[in-house]
Specification:
The protein is α/β, with parallel strands linked by helices and 392 residues long. The protein folds into 3 domains: 63 residues, Arc Repressor Mutant, subunit A (Orthogonal Bundle); 133 residues, Nucleotidyltransferase, domain 5 (2-Layer Sandwich); 172 residues, Nucleotidyltransferase, domain 5. The chain is 43% helix and 18% strand. The chain has 14 helices and 15 strands. Helix 6 crosses helix 14.
């Protein structure tokens, strides 16, 4: 879909990622002749994509003019989780000019959720964040046909199957839109502005309500034929394990995820195995992954064991993926990344123990730097790429 090698696309991406650049340097970086570069710049100035930005420092001879992305450019980035909506409106450099976050339930269906997205973006407009949007990027928590811009049979999103999300957003906001899976946008965000900055081959593991993997190979996201590459939450790790939402038994996600951890914490509290969890259950009536994290920080043995067990299961699946794809980095993100270093240490030790030494000799396994912002950052990158590709 993305014609990233077109000169105008490469030029706009450079300005997005690096800020104002002189005409002379742009010519060098893009390997364009002066007349060709001037024609491209002129076209993009006329189209309202770039603007003059003063004079560059002299490189000897005539001083060159700096060009930058037009200050009026605006992208909307939407990250839909199972239980949250995250929205940012950014400028051309992908710096947020407005941000909104609220709880929701993805199961309330596409009409209700997308209506709320529209209301929040309308609020951003009335608050003065933008006059018009240049593109919208949205991530959803399920498989997506990237080509068609629709979710495909998403297990935790009833009513969303084949719903025309891209078409709807394009019509509503009068600009290009792009739809992707939530884990893919997190991987793209982490590569743009996080710990995987400019790393070409890495795996981004999201551990949240569910578990997924964004596969970044040779500088691009690998989505698979039908958009469900990286759906590692449904790899079976225990044939006698609990039933999963997908209908199979013993999937990774059924054994360790936000929902699984809450279930196991409740069982431990009721069985009297964990004083920390029993106390929290008595005062709050429900338990979440955060309670387990807090219990572990206080030294509660059961909480530590629950996190370690989860880390071991994730690690065993990742060890297989490392032997298969030989990435140069693994990034752990999503809500359960807040379980922190107990989780990370367990994942690391299993991956290093079980994968080939050659594949792990130089393999950092690290926590996401962007945290909750990984998704919106990636959605903004995708939105900008889509707008730049259509720039004329």
């Amino acid at each position: 879909m993305h014609n990233v090698d077109a000169p105008h696309h490469r030029l706009l991406r450079l300005l997005r990622d690096e800020g104002p650049i002189s005409r002379a340097e742009l010519g060098d970086r893009l390997d364009l002749t002066r007349p060709r570069l001037l024609a491209e710049v002129e076209r993009l100035v006329a189209g309202g994509y770039i603007a003059e930005a003063g004079m560059a420092a002299s490189r000897g001879g005539r001083r060159s003019t700096l060009v930058e992305l037009h200050p009026r450019l605006r992208f909307a980035a939407v990250d839909l989780g199972a239980s949250s909506i995250d929205i940012e409106v950014t400028n051309g450099r992908l710096e947020p000019v407005a941000a909104y976050r609220e709880s929701t339930d993805i199961r309330s269906g596409p009409k209700a959720i997308l209506h709320r997205v529209s209301e929040l973006l309308e609020k951003a407009r009335t608050d003065g964040a933008y006059d018009k949007l240049d593109a919208v990027g949205i991530g959803v928590p399920g498989p997506v046909s990237f080509r068609d811009g629709v979710p495909v049979s998403p297990p935790i999103m009833p009513g969303w199957d084949r719903y025309p999300v891209r078409e709807l957003l394009t019509r509503e906001f009068g600009c290009p839109a792009v739809v992707d899976n939530d884990v893919n946008i997190m991987a793209i965000g982490e590569r743009h502005g996080g710990v995987a900055h400019s790393v070409d081959d890495f795996l981004f593991i999201k551990i949240g309500t569910g578990i997924g993997c964004g596969i970044h190979l040779a500088g691009d996201v690998y989505r698979g034929v039908d958009g469900c590459a990286g759906d590692i939450g449904h790899i079976q790790v225990d044939s006698h394990g609990p039933m999963c939402s997908c209908g199979n038994a013993g999937c990774l996600e059924a054994l360790f995820s936000g929902a699984a951890l809450a279930r196991d914490a409740l069982a431990a509290a009721r069985a009297g195995d964990s004083p920390a969890l029993a106390d929290r259950l008595a005062t709050r009536k429900i338990l979440t992954a955060r309670d387990v994290a807090e219990g572990a920080a206080e030294g509660d043995v059961t909480c530590i064991r629950l996190i370690r067990d989860g880390g071991r299961r994730v690690g065993s699946v990742l060890a297989t993926l490392v032997s298969f794809s030989n990435p140069s980095m693994i990034v752990i993100g999503g809500g359960l990344a807040q379980l922190g270093h107990i989780l990370l240490a367990e994942i690391r030790s299993v991956v290093y123990r079980r994968s080939l030494p050659l594949a792990t000799g130089n393999l950092p396994v690290v926590l996401s730097e962007l945290g909750a912002r990984a998704g919106v950052t990636g959605a903004a990158v995708l939105a900008s790429d889509t707008a730049f590709e259509q720039a004329s």
